[in-house]
């Protein structure tokens, strides 16, 4: 029976990339009647420094974003990771299954330490994919909807499951499938078309936040890096224009159109004409979500109650799987 798990870090505000690459698909899967478990991975967030008060606010804001986008706490399990301690417990076991060499090859680790002194990165940032494997396998999840940037981590999750099953001669953890089918699986930075849009990018102008107001969205799109060429009539012709490609991709995802259909409409026009249309479309698509998020943020106690109930339901699935894991590994459990 399929079971879906996915997580988002409360490491900042939600971006258009998170929405188009992940959350929109989360809602579709929930509404297909599949068992869906969605997590705010606060323990992943602290792999880089988080101000404690900001982390609490961001966790509630992320929950508000999930709810505003259409996740229903009756249909899906919504919770924050640290309230289910088995994530940390299985993460430790997997730290002992995964190999240093596997972690060294992770492109997220390389991206997040590039230009910095990797010796000064936290040990948790290095072990991030191992905790992510625990998040997924703790529920024996069969499918993980993610953006393209997380594909390698899901593959590593499969490697960890395979090695665990092999080392302990069991057929216990499933081999999980990544589901990379978002409306846009790789939204790029508005400042640099070769870098993905991220909520933790130091430049706020690089991303559209789900909480940005209409003026801010318009301004960011107007100022987005582009080139001076007009738009061509096919997406293939944009191959070496990463910024132009990104804006067309965003337009298509928001409008629910193919990229070629967007270009059929705008071929021959420059960005002076295209950007205001894209800004209108983005405002129109995101404002119902941001309005609802703002409303939900007025009631943090209700959000906390949803996360608490979700954590109880998550724990009820996770605990027996964790106990079975301890038994397989050879831990004495006598209380
Ligand atoms: P951080 O910068 O802190 O890593 P993030 O924006 O990358 O934050 P994550 O919490 O790491 O967000 O990822 C949450 C989900 O959003 C994942 O499924 C990820 O693949 C997806 N995602 C993140 N950025 C993008 C993007 N630019 N385009 C499409 N999907 C994305
Ligand atoms: Mg990320």
UniProtKB/TrEMBL annotation:
An example Pfam family from this entry, by short name, is tRNA-synt_1b
| Record-listed ATP binding positions | 9-11, 17-18, 147-149, 187, 196-200
Enzyme Commission designation: 6.1.1.2
Which SUPFAM superfamilies does this one have?
A: Nucleotidylyl transferase (SSF52374)
Name the gene that codes for it. trpS
Reaction(s) catalysed by this chain, per the record, are: tRNA(Trp) + L-tryptophan + ATP = L-tryptophyl-tRNA(Trp) + AMP + diphosphate + H(+)
Give start-end ranges for motif 'HIGH' region: 10-18
What broad class of enzyme is this? ligase
| Main location group | cytoplasm
**What is stated as this protein's family in its record?**
Belongs to the class-I aminoacyl-tRNA synthetase family.
Q: Where in the cell is it found?
A: Cytoplasm
Q: What does this protein do?
A: Catalyzes the attachment of tryptophan to tRNA(Trp).
Lineage at the top is:
Bacteria, Pseudomonadati, Pseudomonadota, Alphaproteobacteria, Rhodobacterales
Mind telling me which HAMAP family this protein's record contains? Trp_tRNA_synth_B
Query: What does the record note on quaternary structure?
Result: Homodimer.
What PANTHER family does the database record attribute to this sequence? TRYPTOPHAN--TRNA LIGASE, MITOCHONDRIAL (PTHR43766:SF1)
Q: What are the GO MF terms of this UniProt record?
A: tryptophan-tRNA ligase activity
What positions does the entry give for L-tryptophan binding? 135
Q: From the Swiss-Prot or TrEMBL record, give the protein name.
A: Tryptophan--tRNA ligase
Q: Which InterPro entries match?
A: aa-tRNA-synth_I_CS, aa-tRNA-synth_Ic, Rossmann-like_a/b/a_fold, Trp-tRNA-ligase, Trp-tRNA-ligase_bac-type, Trp-tRNA_synthetase
Cite the entry's keywords alphabetically: Aminoacyl-tRNA synthetase, ATP-binding, Cytoplasm, Ligase, Nucleotide-binding, Protein biosynthesis
Motif: 'KMSKS' region; annotated at: 196-200
